[in-house]
Write a structure and sequence with these properties.
Elements lengths: L8 H7 L3 H18 L5 H8 L4 H10 L8 H16 L1
Amino acid sequence: MNITISLPDSIAQYIGSNEEELRGRLLESFAIEGYRSEKLTAYEVGRLLGLETRMEIDEFLKKNGLFLDYTEEELETQRRGLEALLNN
């Protein structure tokens, strides 16, 4: 889907120095708010921004003060799985 928005030049100049930079910053802002409001998953953020690896997605989220929702139960499950692998 393509969406077109109109911004006054006086506002656009504060967001980006050229059209490509402006486009990138607007997409990033959209992705950040989408993830923050739980409307987008980390995977969807990656697709939107063209990030290819989970590490790139995690780095983008962390850089913007967003962290993965990771419970203690999930950590314990992964710890037990890793322990089982190492003991075999």
